[in-house]
Amino acid sequence: MRKKSILPFNERCANITELFKAAEDGNINKVETILDNKPDWANARNNSGEALIHCATRNRQYDILHLLSRYKLDVDIKDSKGDTALLVATEEDDREAVHILLKLGADPNIPNKNIESALHIATTENRINIIRELLKCNRTDPSITERTGGTPLHVAAFKDNEEAAKLLLEAGAGMCKACSMGFTPMHVATMRNSKNVLQRLIQQAEASSMNSKGQACPLRMHKLPLHEAVLSGDETIVKMCLTSGASIDTKKANGETAVHIAASRGSVNILEILFQAQPDKKLKSLQSKDSSMMTPLHTAALFDKPDVIEYLIQQGADVNETNQDGMTPLLLAASKKAWKAMEMLMNKKADLFCTDDNKRNILHLIVTNGGRPEKMCFLCCKVKVKSLLNDQDSEGCTPLHYASRTGNFNTIAAFIDMGAFLNVKDREKQSPLHFAARYGRFHSCKRLLNVVNGMNILNELDETGQTPLHLASYGGHTRVVDFLLTMGASLQKDFAGNSPAHLAASSGYMATLSVLLDWNGNLTNDENSDGNTPLHLAALNGHASCVNLLLTRNAAFKKNSRSEHFMDMIILNEHKDAAVTVVTHERWREALKYCSSQFCWPAVGMIQHLPEVFQIVLDRCRQPSSMDRKHKDFHWIYSFDFLQLPMEAVRKLREQKKVYTPLLTLNIMVKYNRVDLLSHSVCQGYLQMKWKAYGMWIHTINLIFYLIFLASLSTFIATYDPRYHTDKGLNGTGLPKRWQRHEKEQLEPYQKVFVYIIIVFSCLNIIKEFGQMIQQKFKYFTDLTNAIEWTLYITSMLFIVPFVNGKSSHWQWEYAAVSSFFAWLNLLLFLQRFDFFGIYVVMFMGILKTLVQVLIVFSILIVAFAFAFYILMCGEESPTNQTIGLSMLSVFVMMLGNIYYIENWVKPFVDADPYTMHFSSLSFMILLAFILLIAILLMNLLIGLAVGDIESVQRNARLRRLAMQVDIFTELERKIPQRFLEFVDKTEVKNYPNIRCRRMSKFVNSLVHFEEESHSFDQKLDDPDVDHKVYMFDEFARQRKKIDKLQVALEKQFELVRLVVQKMEIKSEDDGVEDDDSDDDQHSDNWGSMNWRKSSAWQKTSIINFWKREASAKKRSTEEFSMRSSSPT
C-alpha cells in the first residue's frame, strides 16, 4: 500500500477538495501542478470515499487517467462501496475508460462487495463492447465465479444473451463448469428457456466434437438438460436437447428418466416428442423404474393424469407392473385418491384382483383413503366386486373392516347389499362390528346390526374373549355402549375376567361407566381374575371421576388377590387427584379405615407419598360445632381416628409378635420431615391428649423426683463446707493435713437423709440406663443426654458414698463440682420436654453445636497465638503465659476482650528494665494480628453465625422439639401396658376457644401444655395461610374471567367461520362419514394393530361435522340460558 499524506487535516482537506474539483472539470494543468507538489495525493480520497482515479473515471476524464499513470498510482484502489475504477467504468458502460484502465494494469478479476467481477456485470447488462474489451486482456478469467459459483456464461444463459455467450465461448469459458447448486450453463439455459444461448452452446459442443460429452458433464445431482427441458414444459427446448443427442432413457440420481418427468407433468405432447425422436428407446423408457421402483405409468397414476395413462398404455406400458410396495398403478392411484386415474386404468383392463405386499386389494385402499366404492363406475360389474368384498389383507381385515374403522356407513350399507360377509374375522378374531365399536362408529354399528344376520355378531368374542361392548367401553364411546346394550349385548366377562365396567373404569370414562352401572348395578363390585374391582382399576390409573362415581354408587372396599386395597394403588402410584377425591368424599372415613398390606395403615402411605392429601385428611378431622362461632359453647371437635391404629389392630399385631411402633403416623412424619403435618392443630391436639392422659403425670412425677435429687445434692453441697476435707501431700510430707482443727466432721441428720436420697436415686437411674442401653442398643450411644446422665450419676456416687463413713477427701469435692454442674445442666435438658421451655433449649443446643464446630476449625489459630505469646512473654511478671496451658487459656480469655493492655503490655514496655518485654516489637505485631484475626474477625463471625442463622435454627429447633416429643411418647407407650393405653386414650377431644381460663391455669398450661392453634374466627382471619388462600382464590377468579373472555372470542370466531362456510357453500366430500364418539377428551387410540392414514377428505368432513355439532350445541346452550334467566332463581 502507498503511504498516505501526513499533512495537517485542515490543509489537506482544502487542497484535496481543489484537486478533485480540478479532476472533475478536466483541468489537467491544475491537477498536474498539485500532484507535482504532492505526488502521494494520487491515491487520496475525498469526503465520499472516492479516490482520484474513480472521480476521473466517473466523469470520463481520459486525460486525467493518462496523467495519473505518471505517479505512484494504485489502479485497483477501492472506493467506499468496494468498487475499483474498472468496475465503475463497466457500470458506466465506458469502453474507452475500460481500455485505458486495463492498459494501466487494472486487474479485471477483482470482485465488488457482491463478489461480482467486471465480466459478470457487463454480461448481466449485455454490454457487448465492454465484454469484448475485457476479453481482449489476457489477464481476464472468462470462467471466474461469483458468490453462488456461477460464471459469466451462467449469467449469459440466464439472460439469454447470445452474443455475450458467443464471446465467452470464444474466449474459452467452460461449458461444463457447474455452480454451487450443480447446474451448468446448459442447464440454466434449459430451465430459463434461453433458446438462443442453448442453441449456441449446442453448436459449440458440436464444433468441439463433444456433443454427447457436453450433455453429460459430471454434476452433483446428475440433472441432464433434457430433464430440465421436460420439466420446463417448452417443446422447442426439448426438441433442441433431443437433436443434440440427449437420450430419453438416461436416469437422474433418483432413477427418473425424462419420460417419468413428462408423465408427472401430464405433458402428452412432450411424451410424443420423446418417443418420436427415439422410438427405439420407447419400450425401455416405458419399463424403466426409478428408485421407488415406479414406472412412468405409476408416476402418471400417482399424479392423477388420466390422459397420460391412456397414451402410455397405447404405447405399450405394462398396466399391471408393481413398485417396491407391490402396488400396481391401479392400487397406487387408489391409495393416493387419484380417482380419475383409477377409472382410466380400470377402463384399460387393469387387474382388479391384484394386491400389494400387505395383501390389500383395491377396495381396501379406496375405503382407507375416503373413496366411495358404491359410486364408482366399475361397480356396475357387480360380479367382479363381490369376489373382492371378502378378501383379507395380511392382518385378516376385509374391506368391510376398513369401512367400519373409518365410519363410512354408506359404504358399509353398499358392501352389505353387494354380499359382504359380516362374520369374517381378522387375525385377532374381530369382526367388523368389533372395529366399529372400538372406534366409536355409532351409525356404522346400527348399519351392521340392522340387517338380517346382524344380531349374530353382537356377542361374538375376539381372541381375548371381548365382545364389541367391551371394546366400546374401553374406548369410552357412550352412545355406542348404550346402543349395544339396547340391542341386547351381553354384560359378560372376557378371558381375564374383566367386565365392560372394568374396561371403562381403567380408561377413565365416567359417562360410559355410569351407563353400564345404570344397566346393571352388580357390575360395581365385579372382580376379575386378579380380584380387582372397577374401583381398583380406576384407582390404579388415577381416574378421579370414575373413583368418585364408584364411591357414590356404594362400591365395596375389597382387596384383590395380592391383598391390595384400592387406596393402596392410589398411594403407591401417587395419584393426587384421585386421593383428593377419596378424602373429600362423604365415604372418606370408611375408605381410609382398613389395614394396609403395603403400609400397615393408609395414613402412613399418604404421609410418605401424598403429604398434601393427608393435610386435607387432618383438616377434615377438625370440625366445628353447629353453634355460632362467637357463642360461649362453640367448640372444635378433634378426631384422632387416622393418627392412631385401632386397638384391635394393635392387639392383633402384638399377638402375631410383629414389630409395632407406637404413634406410627407421627413417627413417619418425623422420619420424612413433614413439619407442616406435625404442626397441624390435630397432631398438636393428639400429642396434647397423650400429654394429659399419661405424659403429664409421668413426666411431672419424674420431674418431682429429679428435683428432690437436685435439691438434696445442692443443699448438701451448700450446707457442708468443702474446705473440711483431707488433702494428702498438701505440704509435700505425705502426712494428713487439715485446713481446720477437727479430724472428723459429723453430718447433721438432715444431711444424712440427703446422702441416702442421692445414693438411692443414682443407683436406680444407673439401673435404668443399663435397661435403656439393652433396649436401644447402638442408638443409645448416639444420644448426648445419656453421656451426661452417666457422668452425673457416677460422679454423684463417687462424691456422696464416702460420706456414709464420714470421710471427706480432696478428690470427692472435685467430683462434687462435676456432679453439681451436670445435675443443673441435665435439668436444662429435662425442660426440653415442656413446650414453653423446649424451643429455647433446642435453639441453645443447636447454636452450641455450631459454635463448637467453628471453634474446632479455628482452634488452629488459638494454638498458634498461644505458642507465640508463650515464647515472647513467658518471662514477664504476669503469670498468664508461664506455661503453654496458661497461654492457651489466656488466649481464650483475650477473645472476650480482656487483654489487660496497660498491665501486660504498656507498663512492661515503658519501664527501664531491659528484661521485661524483651521482644517488644514482635510482641506488639503479634498482638495486632490477634486483635484483627481473633478479637474482630473470629468473634464477629461467631456472632454472625448465631444471629444470621436464627431463622433456620428456629425451624430446625421446631422439628427437633416435635420429634423429641414424639420420641418421648413412643418410648413411654412401649413400656405402658396395652390395657392402660386403651383406658386413657381418646378418639376425639373438644376444644372451647371462647371459654377463658384463669390466669394461673393459663400460665400453668403454657408451661406444660403443647402449643395450641387458635381456632377463633377472628384469629383465623388473621392467619397468613388464610391470606394466601384468599389470594389464590382471587387469582383463580381472575384467571376464570380471562378464560371466559377467551371462550366468548372463540365463539365469535366460530360464528364467523360458520357464516363463511355457509356463504361459500362448502360441503364435505362424503356426508356419510361419521366421527368417533368418545365421552370425553381422554379418549386415545389404544389399538395399534393397523396403520391407518387420514386423508384430507376425512379431515374436511371432520371439520364440517364439528361445525355442525358446535352450532347445535351452542343453540341448545342459548335456549338453556334463556330458560334459566327467566326462572325465579
Overall form: flat
Overall average residue pLDDT: 79
* N-to-C CA distance: 95 Å
SS elements, strand count? 3
The residue fraction in helices comes out at: 55-70%
Order the strands across the largest sheet as they lie in space.
Answer: 1-2-3
* Content of β-strand: under 5%
Low-confidence stretches: 1-14, 210-216, 218-223, 731-744, 1008-1027, 1067-1071, 1080-1108, 1114-1129
The gyration radius over C-alpha positions equals: 52 Å
Overall SS class: mainly alpha
Please report the number of helical segments: 56
Main beta sheet strand tally, sense and closure: 3 strands, antiparallel
Short structural description:
By secondary structure, this protein is mainly alpha-helical.
Can you characterise this structure?
This protein has 1129 residues and is mainly alpha-helical. Among the domains are: 114 residues, no CATH class; 106 residues, no CATH class; 86 residues, no CATH class. Helices cover 58% and strands 1% of the residues. The chain contains 56 helices and 3 strands. It has a 3-stranded antiparallel β-sheet with strand order 1-2-3. The chain is flat, with a radius of gyration of 52 Å. The N terminus and C terminus are likely disordered.
